[in-house]
Amino acid sequence: MKTNERIQHQGKVAVAAACLSMAWLLWSVANIAGAQTAPANLSPGLQEVVKLTQAKMGDDVITTYIKNSGQAYTLSADDILYLNSQGVSQAVITTLMQSKGAAPAMPAPPPMAPAAPMTPAPPPVMTPPAQPDAYVPPAQPPPGSGIDLNYFQNRLAPYGNWVDVPPYGPAWRPTVAMDPAWRPYFNGGHWEYTDSGWYWQSDYPYGDIVFHYGRWLRDFRYGWVWIPGYQWAPAWVAWRQADAYAGWAPLPPAAYFEPGVGLMYRGRFGLDVDFGLGYDDFVFVGYDHFWAPDYRAFLAPRILVRDQLFGASLVINNYSFGPDGRFVVEGLGRDHMALLTHHDIRSFNIVIRDARIMQARTVERAFVVNRIKDIRSRPANDPLRRAVEDRDAAVRRGPVPAERGRAIVPDRGPATRATEPGRGAPDARAIEPGRGAPDARTPEAGRGVPESRTPDAETRGAERGSGSKDSKDK
Questions:
Q1: Are strands 319-321 and 189-194 parallel, antiparallel or unpaired?
Q2: Which of 164, 294, 304, 376 lies in the 20 to 30 Å Cα band around 282?
Q3: Are 260 and 388 a contacting pair, CB within 8 Å?
């Protein structure tokens, strides 16, 4: 009897174990299938969250996007499993589950008894906002470049949205700009010195467009937006030098590019003009941290910029053309920055992997070379020829001092290179038009190593951490 009971008991245990194993197997298969395949009814809002996660956006940016969307998300178990399989963090999933959407509308108040008629007050006088500088639409690309607005819109669509910003027209707002602390030419990148001067090496997948074409504008409705443009540059920024700090700011849309002449502002060549930029447009980083891969920990406080750095800074832009038509942004200069940052600077040739942009640069350079020849052959009183002569004279003359953050625009005629008290003599080897960096150890613009042999971004990042870049070549 006891033997039969023991056998029956063992049989029940075996059946129960088999059932549990089968249930676990079925649950695992369902879990894996659910984690790899999006639920059929996944909402567009959750699809956007997955897209931001796959674009390597931080949790703070994604949670800000969720809160600003005004949507209420109801997550099923399949939704949660799918989001987790796509790399969405638990913090973001928690934010989705806690979202409440837009606040419900308040009920209408009960009707009030009619009041005695009153004399209407005069309407308030509205002060119109300050008018921006006259906007000159960007020059169209030369024929055959392949760069146009449709190309930009298709490339940038996955990473932000397009809005209308009068009087500039279509403008692109990146998703990362939802973070109010985000700034172009500051977050997600660093400076490299190249055969075209100072080049902004962006970490964003769209950086090859928005930091080398067009202009940035801080709009009162949308924050930072990008205004399309069709001329390429290593960076469209203005530079300032202060004691122990380097400063830079995105150029405004009013700074327009005249092919063959250069960067213009209010009809003048933009070598040492301030472009109407104020202290709040600039970021300042100490020279000791200029080679850091991330500048956020080294940003000078706004009160320091407002009260000291901006007013005492010197505008040093140094724009020129190379002999092959490339636009060179020399900024504070290679030799000068090597002295200020105590860092040997190696020059890289720029690598562009987008075939469309590479073609556009080739066509644009040839166009600029021919245009420069045409401008120099014009009569002496031609406005463009005079502008080129102004540019050449300003480059030879070098930077001039700033006055409380305002640049002194040089007039035509002879001038000497000024030196501020306590700053020491500026770099005496001024950059001649079309010669690029004056360092004898570096190939001139247009004579360097072919672009296909340029070190890649990973090599650049490793060298930025060293005390000397030239030591890597030995």
A1: unpaired
A2: 164
A3: yes
Q: 309 is written with which tokens?
A: 């750095």
Please give the Cα distance from 461 to 464 (Å, whole number).
Answer: 5
Enter the tokens of residue 376: 């120099």
Q: Across the strands, what pairs with 111?
A: none
* Unique residue bearing structure tokens 């392949």: 146
Amino acid at 11: G
- By DSSP bridging, strand 169-174 and strand 160-165 are antiparallel
Residue ranges of the domains in the chain?
23-98, 149-473
Give the torsion through C-alpha atoms of 373, 376, 377, 379, to 10 deg: 160
161 three-class SS: strand
Inter-CA distances, 359 with 140, 144, 249, 343, 353, Å? 15, 8, 28, 34, 11
Contact predicate 388/376, CB 8 Å: yes
Q: How many CA atoms lie within 13 A of 82 on its CB side?
A: 20
Q: What is the pTM of this model?
A: 0.59
> How far apart are the C-alpha atoms of 114 and 92, rounded to whole Å?
51
pLDDT along the chain (474 residues), means of 10: 58 60 52 55 79 78 77 81 83 80 47 47 41 66 88 95 95 95 97 95 95 95 95 94 96 87 75 86 97 95 95 88 85 92 91 88 90 88 81 65 40 32 34 34 34 38 39 35
CA-based radius of gyration for the chain: 30
